[in-house]
Write a structure and sequence with these properties.
Blueprint (H helix, E strand, L loop, with lengths): L32 H9 L13 E3 L1 E4 L2 E16 L8 E7 L11 E5 L4 E7 L27 E4 L30 E4 L6 E7 L5 H7 L2 E7 L1 H7 L8 E9 L30 E4 L2 E2 L2 E4 L3 E8 L6 E5 L5 E6 L2 E9 L2 E3 L4 E7 L7 E6 L17 E7 L22 H4 L5 E11 L5 E6 L17 E8 L5 E5 L3 E9 L3 H11 L7 H4 L4 E2 L11 E4 L3 E8 L2 E2 L3 E2 L13 E3 L9
Parallel strand pairs: 1-5, 3-6, 5-10, 11-15, 14-22, 23-25
Antiparallel strand pairs: 2-3, 3-4, 6-8, 7-9, 9-10, 11-12, 12-13, 15-20, 16-19, 16-21, 17-18, 17-20, 21-22, 23-24, 25-30, 26-29, 26-33, 27-28, 27-30, 31-32
Length: about 575
């Protein structure tokens, strides 16, 4: 696809699927759902301690002043122990070396406005460890190997450092994709302090490489803001919880289907991946011993398709202080948190408010969300907190202030919007009702670019979801926020018109977007990088194409340069097909 600069940034749909190598991994023998469930059921919950994710600092300190740092992080084939009673699992993992590669990979901790430079290196083998589907467009290295490219999710990065899906490279940079330009990526860290994560983003590989283990956190701190807010701080009381689901074969290997839902069309592809075991920081159903005091948890859902609706047993609640990479203006007390794939929540839990000795983090989100299967005895549990008796070992001086962080208000920006765009999600089905592909605005990834916003402007994006599932909508570079969610009436008639004309205005969207309004949850009223798109609804987004913090600032790089940026659904992106 021609991704040349137009009048502004280049946005397009991502097309992604499965890994391709010189020698295709032989298909695994058929495995039944019953067998996978039995393997997961054999793993006793809460026997492995929650790991502390390794950390790399994206800055150095010289004479007490933070300075930019250079990191080198590789992608390795290694083994990982997901559970005490499960054999070791072959994975792909990020690490500063093969010896310390981990799942998740190391947290990169950066300082706001201090750049971090990362050289990404590919040490992956010639063949993939998981199945792939040859009928689906993908990165195709001529001489084998597993292509990779890294995207900092939620990052404000130059286009050459954003992890464009066609900027892939194989081991030792032997082959590179058509938009690859450099080995070292620049992360300016100019955005507000918050929680990001990095992951593989290769066209044709994204889902399978994430399932293999290429995920990791990235935290941007503002030291003065940390001091003012006085939230729980330090490696013990401020923890990342990276949650995802996996299924395992009896030999400990990762399970991924080798037969598709429509094998005559796509022999291997299936529309979603749902694992039987819930993993937190690389361990299945771990436990964490906590004191009776406040803790901060930066929760990130890195599952392929599973939504989580999280809650705590024994009358404990969350105080949510942030969503994705931004703080909320004010803390929100809530009993439950709903996270779509790739979405994050920043919360404080006060374990002194219960007399109980434990609390289980639970999940009750149907899958697919919101109208799918009910959770079972496995995927309804996430992890356990074991609450130590007595007073904390040191006095807890942290607190949750009534006011957190003020950003420009989204609803106030609508009047100054330069453009309104209609973005429609379509799903294509066989006569039997099984999915074959999903497009945005009826277009393929390789079709000409249609969204060309200008730097420094505000736009309104009306996202219309004509599918049956909720979709986590992600835009690279831009900050956006939902301000209105309205149900569509006569959905069948509108869908029929859109299928023929693919034009929301010609199909009279204003007469169909007249159903009940749904409030944007208070926990999501901030600048986000993922917004959940409810099925059968039109969600109005205010999108800002500049740095959003205390004031509007231009990007510290040229955002119109090649290869541009993309937007997509964060699980259906993994299978947008021709």
């Amino acid at each position: 696809m021609n991704m040349g600069p137009l009048s502004g940034w280049v946005f397009s749909m991502i097309l992604a699927s499965w890994a391709l190598t010189e020698a295709r991994t032989p298909p695994s023998p058929p495995v039944t759902d019953t067998t996978l469930f039995q393997v997961a059921s054999s793993l006793r919950m809460y026997v492995d301690e929650l790991p502390l994710i390794p950390k790399l600092f994206g800055y150095t300190v010289v004479n007490g002043v933070p300075q930019p740092a250079n990191l080198t992080i590789g992608m390795y084939k290694t083994t990982w122990k997901f559970h005490r009673d499960l054999p070791v699992t072959t994975v792909f993992a990020y690490g500063a070396s093969a010896a310390n590669a981990s799942v998740p990979g190391p947290t990169i901790e950066a300082i706001q406005n201090i750049p971090t430079y990362v050289t990404w290196e590919n040490f992956l083998p010639q063949s993939h460890i998981l199945p792939w589907d040859p009928t689906i467009p993908m990165a195709i290295p001529k001489n084998g190997g597993v292509p990779t490219v890294v995207h900092l999710h939620g990052g404000i990065s130059p286009p050459q450092s954003d992890g464009h899906p066609l900027a892939w490279f194989t081991a030792n940079f032997a082959e590179t994709g058509p938009t690859w330009t450099q080995r070292t990526y620049t992360y300016p860290n100019t955005q507000h302090a918050g929680n990001l994560w990095y992951h593989d983003h290769t066209v044709g590989l994204t889902r399978v490489n994430l399932l293999a283990g290429l995920i990791a956190p990235y935290i941007i701190r503002n030291v003065s803001l940390d001091a003012r807010l006085n939230l729980p701080l330090g490696p013990v009381f401020d923890r990342v919880l990276m949650i995802f689901d996996r299924s395992f074969n009896s030999d400990g290997s990762l399970y991924m289907n080798s037969t598709g839902v429509n094998p005559t069309i796509h022999p291997q592809w299936q529309p979603e991946y749902f694992g039987d075991a819930v993993i937190v920081n690389g361990k299945a159903w771990p436990y964490l011993r906590v004191e009776r005091r406040r803790y901060r948890f930066r929760i990130i859902n890195t599952s392929n398709a599973r939504f989580f609706r999280l809650s705590l047993t024994n009358n404990l609640a969350f105080t949510q202080i942030g969503s994705d990479g931004s703080y909320l203006p004010n803390p929100v007390a809530t009993q439950a948190i709903v996270l779509g794939p790739a979405e994050g929540a920043d919360v404080v839990v006060d374990f002194s408010t219960t007399a109980a000795s434990e609390s289980v983090l639970t999940n009750d989100a149907p899958y697919p969300y919101p109208g799918g299967n009910a959770v079972d005895q496995l995927n309804s549990k996430v992890m356990k907190f074991i609450i130590q008796p007595g007073a904390p070992s040191q006095t807890d001086h942290s607190h949750v202030p009534p006011n957190l962080k003020t950003y420009p208000i989204a609803s106030n920006a609508i009047g100054g919007a330069n453009t309104t765009r209609y973005i429609t999600l379509y799903e294509y089905l066989t006569p039997a009702g099984t999915s074959t592909h999903l497009y945005i605005n009826g277009l393929r990834f390789e079709d000409p670019v249609t969204e060309t916003p200008r730097a420094g402007t505000t736009e309104v994006w009306e996202v219309i979801n004509l599918t049956s599932d909720n979709h986590p909508f992600h835009m690279h570079l831009a900050a956006f926020q939902a301000v209105k969610i309205q149900q569509l009436v006569d959905l069948a008639g509108f869908t029929s018109c859109m299928t023929r004309l693919n034009d929301a205005i010609l199909c009279n969207i204003t007469s169909h977007a007249t159903g009940p309004l749904v409030d944007v949850p208070p926990t999501e009223r901030t600048w986000k990088n993922v917004v959940k798109m409810a099925p059968g609804y039109k969600t109005t987004l205010v999108v800002q194409f500049f740095v959003v913090d205390n004031a509007h600032s231009p990007y510290p790089f040229d955002p119109t340069a090649e290869p541009g940026y993309v937007y997509h659904c964060h699980f259906r992106v993994l299978y947008y097909f021709v």
